[in-house]
Design a protein that fits this description.
Layout (H helix, E strand, L loop, with lengths): L10 E7 L18 H15 L4 H8 L3 H7 L9 H10 L2 E7 L3
Antiparallel strand pairs: 1-2
Length: 103
């Protein structure tokens, strides 16, 4: 069974990718974001683009379905599971860090 994350402010997700291309992207992966759910989709999309992958390539490399990838890139989606999120990020040569902070 997958663990589900409640991303309503308790969890901050920090995605990092070690790539020169990422420096050219519009998102600073080291800065916390105010809108956590929105930033996750933005960060995932930027990570995929920086890795030079399209959705079908990422699906093959990660083992996730194209539908799951599209859901993760939707700014209104909030039902991320850690296992699938890790697959997505690692397929883009990224690293998934989860920081839990007190409100």
């Amino acid at each position: 069974m997958f663990q589900r994350l409640d991303l309503s402010g308790v969890f901050l997700l920090n995605l990092r990718m070690h790539s020169e291309e990422l420096l050219k992207k519009r998102i600073d992966f080291n800065q916390p974001q105010e809108e956590v759910a929105e930033s996750i989709s933005d960060r995932l999309t930027a990570l995929k683009e920086a890795a030079g992958l399209n959705t079908s390539q990422l699906a093959k490399k990660s083992g996730l379905s194209p539908l799951t990838i599209n859901l993760f890139e939707n700014p209104y989606y909030e039902q991320y599971d850690i296992h699938s999120l890790k697959k997505y990020v690692e397929a883009c040569d990224g690293r998934l860090d989860i920081h839990i902070k007190k409100k």
